[in-house]
Write a structure and sequence with these properties.
The complex is a heterodimer of chains A (246) and B (297). Chain A is of the alpha+beta class. In chain A, the strands form four sheets. In chain A, strands 7, 8, 9, 10, 11 and 12 form a six-stranded antiparallel beta sheet that branches. Chain A has four helices and 15 strands. The longest helix of chain B has 33 residues. In chain B, 34% of the residues are buried. In chain B, strands 1, 2, 3, 4, 5 and 6 form a six-stranded mixed beta sheet that branches. Chain B has six helices and 14 strands. Classes of the chains: A alpha+beta (246), B alpha+beta (297). Chains A and B meet through helix 3 of A and helix 1 of B. Chain A: It is found in: Cytoplasm; Nucleus, Nucleolus. Chain A: InterPro entries: Exosome_RNA_bind1/RRP40/RRP4, KH_dom_type_1, KH_dom_type_1_sf, NA-bd_OB-fold, RRP40_KH-I, Rrp40_N_euk, Rrp40_S1. Chain A: GO terms for molecular function: RNA binding.
Chain lengths: 246, 297
């Protein structure tokens, strides 16, 4: 990833050709927010920070906001809308077309042992197919190993809405170093025990033995997101919330 | 027709559990606490911008000279226009009033218009021929529950802030003065009613909350809107369906509502005073100035 100062682009702006990564073998890969207009023009479609990764010959735009657009291998939290003959309709975000989740896309599911989900229940799933102009498809099982890997129906708990950028930061492998999110570690250090699942579609599911803990985690996450708190401020916020609750 | 986004079963169950077993709300408020209420006035007279947490409402009052209704020759005209556009939430459509919208405009009508808050007789200019028509437009900019209380506060604030052009009647000639000629005059205002909405949760509505946000509104089993002014005069009580609520609980709700209305009233008064101070450029030194104000444009 480039270490220079962040470059902010606007939709339709032309991108300096010297920034575009080249490689003798690997093709250039475009991420969210960029569009290729043949033969050789690359145009941003959203406003945000242009990120160039020379090692992977890829570039994309980092932006926070807008509605979730599914892309393959994203982990999402969906809400069952209804069941059809052999799949569930799942809502990923309000007012958008539903995704489909086959009845058999669960760990060791057969026609007889598949999970029976009713409308309104939640699932943690992976986007298995996402094409433009098509409804996305989901799965709750790894197609290669046949294991759930933590995916599947979510029981109890509470879902909190966060911004898409914050959900992405939470999901980063090094969320503390790169994403500057320390709120979860801080909560854990204060002796709170909870389970968490982050959906790329801006939803965070939190569960715990104690209702108060869930509320506290939710408030800490939301406030961190809304006020765009830094690492120090996140620690302070957690301290304050924990003191209030006790 | 797009459907409104419903909370999931987990969210509904958790919210109820938190309210009933632990007595906590998701945003950490007390049961009888409002979200932070903020009011700002525009540069023009009669523009009030109210935000109650994430609910944002803009109310604009305006006046024009028209012919009074034939059956009420001595009264002016006063209307409140409420429209929920797709900007509010995607499930609201233009020109297709939803239940929420009808109930909102009906409640505002009952609270502000029918309680005689605005003296419509003072809007009459020439009996049977000319009168002021005062209109308040309510725009909901963002919907996070409790539209009624926020909208009512915005309407009252806009009307209290509004100034209509000064008029005079000489030898049967009616003159309407521009702001440059004569300072506009405030409306004839009699009392300030405010709405306070209680939401009830649980099988028998045993948990009562003030100022429910959108999520809580979707889970509640009943709601009561009480409109009253700071003297404790109740203008209306609306309980539109839902589970029955104990009479004693309702009495308690009303007494808490009165303290909230007193807070609203004090807050509005202080904001109006602050705005008047901001607009008042002069004082004594201004009166002593020799130069004239230049009329721009």
């Amino acid at each position: 990833m480039s270490t220079e100062s962040p470059l902010v682009v606007l939709p339709g702006e032309s991108i300096d050709p010297s920034l575009i990564p080249t490689h003798h073998k690997n093709p250039l890969r475009l991420g969210p927010g960029l569009r290729h207009i043949p033969p050789s023009e690359i145009v941003p479609t959203v406003a945000g920070q242009l990120v160039v990764d020379n090692r992977k010959t890829s570039m994309w735009i980092e932006y926070n906001g807008g509605r979730y657009i599914p892309s393959q291998n994203d982990l999402i939290i969906g809400q069952i809308v209804r069941s059809a003959t052999d799949f569930y309709y799942v809502s990923l975000s309000p007012y958008t077309p539903n995704a489909t989740l086959p009845h058999l896309a669960f760990e060791s599911a057969t026609k007889k042992t598949r999970p029976q989900l009713s409308p309104g229940e939640l699932v943690y799933a992976r986007v298995s197919l996402a094409n433009k102009h098509m409804d996305p498809e989901l799965e709750c099982v790894s197609p290669s190993t046949g294991k759930a890997d933590g995916l599947g129906p979510l029981k109890d708990g509470m879902v909190f809405d966060v911004s898409l950028g914050f959900a992405r930061r939470l999901l980063m492998a090094k969320s503390r170093e790169e994403g500057k999110v320390e709120v979860l570690e801080a909560l854990g250090e204060d002796g709170l025990g909870f389970e968490i699942a982050v959906g790329r579609n801006g939803k965070v599911w939190v569960n715990s033995e104690s209702t108060k803990t869930v509320v506290l985690v939710g408030r800490a996450l939301r406030e961190t997101d809304e006020k765009n708190l830094g690492v120090e401020a996140q620690r302070k916020l957690v301290k304050k919330l924990v003191r209030e609750m006790r | 027709m797009p459907r409104e986004a419903e909370p999931s079963a987990n969210e509904k169950a958790f919210l109820l559990k938190a309210l009933q077993d632990e007595q906590i709300r998701l945003d950490g408020r007390e049961f009888d606490a409002y979200r932070p209420l903020e009011l700002t006035f525009g540069d023009e007279y009669g523009v009030a911008n109210v935000s109650l947490g994430k609910t944002k409402i803009l109310a604009k009052a305006s006046a024009e000279v028209t012919v009074p209704f034939a059956d009420r020759p001595l009264d002016g005209i006063f209307t409140i226009a409420t429209e929920l556009s797709p900007m509010t939430a995607p499930h609201f459509e233009v020109n297709r009033p939803t239940e929420t919208e009808v109930l909102l405009s009906r409640l505002l009508e009952k609270t502000v218009r029918r309680s005689g808050a605005l003296d419509t007789e003072s809007l009459c200019l020439v009996a049977g021929q000319k009168c002021w028509s005062v209109r308040v437009d309510v725009h909901v900019l963002s919907h996070d529950g409790n539209l009624t209380d926020a909208a009512c506060f915005a309407v009252v604030a806009a009307l209290r802030h509004f100034r209509k052009p000064d008029t005079s009647m000489e030898n049967g000639v009616l003159t309407v003065y521009t702001p440059a000629e004569r300072e506009p005059v405030p409306l004839g205002w009699l009392h300030s009613p405010f709405c306070v909405t209680w939401s009830f949760f649980g099988d028998e509505g045993e948990t009562a909350l003030l100022d429910a946000d959108w999520m809580e509104e979707q889970v509640r089993v009943a709601s009561v809107t009480i409109s009253l002014n700071r003297h404790g005069e109740i203008c209306q009580i609306a309980k539109l369906g839902g589970v029955p609520v104990e009479a004693v609980a309702l009495l308690q709700c009303t007494s808490v509502a009165l303290t909230k209305v007193k807070e609203f009233s004090t807050y509005l008064d202080s904001k109006l005073a602050e705005d008047a101070k901001r607009r008042d450029k002069g004082g004594f030194m201004a009166e002593l100035r020799a130069e004239n104000d230049r009329v721009v444009g």
